[in-house]
Amino acid sequence: MNLLVVTAVQAELDALGVDGLVGGVGPVAAAVSTAMALGSGTYDLVLSTGLAGGFAGRAPIGSIVVADTVRWADLGADTDEGFLDLAGLGLAGGDVLASPGGRWVTDALDLPVLTGEILTLSTMTGTDRRGAELASVHPSAVAEAMEGYGVAWAAQAAGVPWAELRAISNLVGRRDRSAWNIPLAFESLRTAVAALVRATVDS
Ligand SMILES: O=C(O)c1cccc(C(=O)CC[C@H]2O[C@@H](n3cnc4c(=O)[nH]cnc43)[C@H](O)[C@@H]2O)c1
């Protein structure tokens, strides 16, 4: 099985110690990079991976999360009546995508993983108020990152199964870089992705 691993930044790919694509930060960079890679190679599964913020009480620092769905959570309109997603705006298109490869990834890992929705946001949450709002509006969200939906959209358009797997480096809320535990998250991520790569060799 040929796996395309997509991270946002070089430090994430270096930490994994596998071949892959540094797709850039944010959903647009991730989508364009993934689409270009899928146009020039043959892959059986695309994996969006890297660090993520975990929602308090749902995904602690150091844990591994696998998406059952990804949601572009800031695609829509901010109104006096609250946030309107695409459906709320009466626009066609999907801001939520179900992962065709998530179940396979979870089953392939002989590790404890948390499964749920992973939000994709162009604006990383940096206040407790926004974090609480997102947690309330998206009760099944376990984490937020900035690329999953873009990778998923490109893979879906190319007809290739995709999954999102992340390690929690920080909690969603007030931005406090001193509270990020990147070494722990990278250790979890390296273990999980190594197990996944082993599983792809057998498939
Ligand atoms: O500062 C460092 O040493 C460092 C090393 C590797 C990666 C980083 C990043 O900042 C990665 C950015 C990447 O991580 C995702 N991420 C992580 N936490 C959050 C969050 O709370 N909310 C949204 N996204 C998050 C995101 O996908 C970024 O692209 C730093």
Automatic annotation (TrEMBL):
SUPFAM superfamilies xrefs: Purine and uridine phosphorylases (SSF53167)
Recorded family membership: Belongs to the PNP/UDP phosphorylase family. Futalosine hydrolase subfamily.
Biological process, per Gene Ontology: L-methionine salvage from S-adenosylmethionine; menaquinone biosynthetic process; nucleoside metabolic process
Name of protein: Futalosine hydrolase
Function: Catalyzes the hydrolysis of futalosine (FL) to dehypoxanthine futalosine (DHFL) and hypoxanthine, a step in the biosynthesis of menaquinone (MK, vitamin K2).
EC number from the UniProt entry: 3.2.2.26
Residues in Nucleoside phosphorylase domain copies: 23-201
Alphabetical UniProt keywords: Glycosidase, Hydrolase, Menaquinone biosynthesis
Tagged with keyword Hydrolase: yes
One of the record's GO molecular function terms: adenosylhomocysteine nucleosidase activity
Annotated source species: Cryptosporangium phraense
